[in-house]
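ARCHIVE RECORD
Type: protein–small molecule complex
Small molecule: adenosine-5-diphosphoribose
Source of inputs: curated submission
Record status: active
Notes field left blank by submitter.
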Amino acid sequence: MKKLVVLSGAGISAESGIKTFREMGGLWETYDVMEVASPQAWERDPELVLDFYNSRRKQLLECEPNKGHLGIAELEKYFNVEIVTQNVDDLHERAGSTKVLHLHGELKKVRSTYDPGLVYELDGWELKLGDKCELGYQLRPHIVWFGEDVPKIQDAIRIFEDADICAVIGTSLNVYPAARLLAYLPKGTPVYLIDPNETMIRQTDNVVFINEKAGTGVAKMKDLLLGKEN
Ligand code: APR
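STRUCTURE (tokenized, with ligand):
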């Protein structure tokens, strides 16, 4: 089976009701990143940071995977699909995808502020000051904040290095190192880019632009991949 590598971003979860970051009305229009998603914010006002992630976690409980997630999961019938997502929601997994690498962390997980190797599934949606790890240290969101290292980037690079096909779905490619992953694709790898808006992508050879939302764009990509061009 050919290896299909998917790089997904907030746009694939938009039709599930989850806000993207950089569009009109996006999350970063409502919140100042440096106030809620950085180590400095955690030092300055941990409760504001906890509230920010608690509200996103609570919202996620009401969201379902959309046709975009489900379509990618279904492609596992035809391809060895590996997803590298920038999203912290679990909608790819809930849609049935079996190989999902979260580059920027996972909303439903928390970790020790003392030992980052101590990671826990959060029971419920609320993490509070005073919630501690087994060693007695405060728990924090298991999220890669701005300015922090991206521990899984080498694993992600290895996934891209032997891709046969790549799909880029719902990401503005604004954030590094995620956006640089495309540079690790073998030369000439076909790339399918699904986004209703124009996206800045460095390489333009071998890119098929599908200017649609993920829900319909993934179905269109599937037809193209399976040679069922309409
Ligand atoms: N289907 C597909 N794409 C969509 C849809 C949709 N229904 N709606 C919006 N988009 C596209 C937008 O056009 C945009 O290109 O999704 C992209 C969302 O871009 P961003 O909001 O920048 O989100 P993302 O690229 O995932 O951000 C990367 O930045 O803030 C950090 O850690 C955060 O993981 C995030 C990273």
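CURATOR ANNOTATION: The mean pLDDT is 95.
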